[in-house]
Amino acid sequence: MTAPSPYQWFKSSYSGGSGTECVECARVGETILVRDSKHSCGPLLLVQGQAWRAFIGMLGKY
């Protein structure tokens, strides 16, 4: 059994609705953690807040 995560994960609103493309995010101060919801014990991507805001801002342009 794995230990519960110390972070409050939420599913990204940009994830696909089919359940095959799910990305979860968690906020830790100004840092954003990103993981594949199908592999919750897998690797994490850490993104600094300023870079995350720039990334999210660009999503609406495509």
**Order of adjacent strands in the largest pleated sheet:** 1-2-3-4
Q: What proportion of the residues is helical, as a percent range? A: 10-25%
**In DSSP terms, counting alpha (H) and pi (I) runs of 4 or more, how many helices?**
1
Low-confidence stretches: none
The gyration radius over C-alpha positions equals 12 Å
How much of the sequence lies in strands comes to: 25-35%
Shape category = flat
Task: Characterize the main sheet.
Answer: 4 strands, antiparallel
* Topology as a string of helices (H) and strands (E): EEEEH
Q: Can you describe this structure?
A:
- By secondary structure, the chain is of the alpha+beta class.
- It is built from 1 helix and 4 strands.
- Strands 1-2-3-4 form a 4-stranded antiparallel β-sheet.
- The longest helix has 11 residues, at 49-59.
- The N and C termini lie far apart (41 Å).
